Amino acid sequence: MKRFSRFESGSSAFHFISRSNNPQTLFLSLSLSAIAVVGMRKGTKRKAKQQPEPKQEEDASQQDNPKPPPKAKRPKTSKPQPEPEYFEDKRNLEDLWKQTFPVGTEWELLDSVYQFNWDFSNLEKAFEEGGVLHGKKVYLFGCTEPTLVTFKGESKVVFVPVVVAVVSPFPPSDKIGIKSVQREVEEIIPMKQMKMDWVPYIPLEDRDSQVDRLKSQIFILSCTQRRSALKHLKLDRIKKYEYCLPYFYQPFKEDEDEHRTEVPIIFPAEPNPIVCEFDWELDELEEFTDKYIEAEELSEDQKDAFKEFVKEKVREAKKAIREAREARKKTIEEMSEETKNAIKNMRFYKFYPVESPDAPDVSVKSQYINRYYGKAHEVL
Fold first, then answer.
1. Global confidence as pTM
2. Which pLDDT score is estimated for 9?
């Protein structure tokens, strides 16, 4: 059998062996052919991998077709920055006057009180060093006074807010008075029945502190009645708020009613009731009665009933005056010397808003507070 070197081609070997009739020789022929084919394929792949990439051709093509230069970016236009807004720092007691409840003001008029930016800087300065309220324990309550003013060329009646400051070591009263021309009987009831009470005022700089840790020297009369809940109240209850007056009992000062000698009379006559006042010191009852008979406001057969009605009203008024004097005397006797001195040294200050371009100028100022407090020691 002829031997072939490994360097001889596979086709020559196959040609020689295929002519042999020996089956073993034929099988060997086929195996050698398969090995040769596989070897040729592997060599082809190896040679293909070893071939270098045509780098020069790529460089030439890049030179022939140069890339366009990049477009210049459009410069960004900065948005105009808005000018910074500057807000004035809030003053420490700026909302003090707003926090005091305007006692006796009708509910539907409350919004009109705050329609102007009233300036109570005089009240704020009173608490500063050298002011009349500096370093003192003060109780504040508000009220309103209807006043004819001129603002921006227009004359109209506005409800001017007023703040009353009471310098006292203890609350001046825990009661409220309910009195009006329409109500025959005066009521003195606890503040809490009208959802009112003295509460500490917290200055703006202390709003983040705990109230119980602050030693507040300023207390305001506050009302927790919500306006939204008024629709659930009876009309008489709502009207009571309009007739409320901050109450103060001054045992060392005689009540103005103690010297009053007139009594209101509302006699149910026919066809119309008789409404008048009888002065038991100046009027003579017989002449007083005949005057209404002559005017045909009172019939002859009602004369005796009318006279008895007037006498009863006079007796009630005199009894009330006598009881008031006795109660005042008893109160003074039961007071400690410390309380007596505190009441005697109490001072009332009445603050009106100062002139401001945002609100009407209030030129008319009254020293009178109400029938319980009387007059203020000073108006500012």
1. 0.65
2. 46
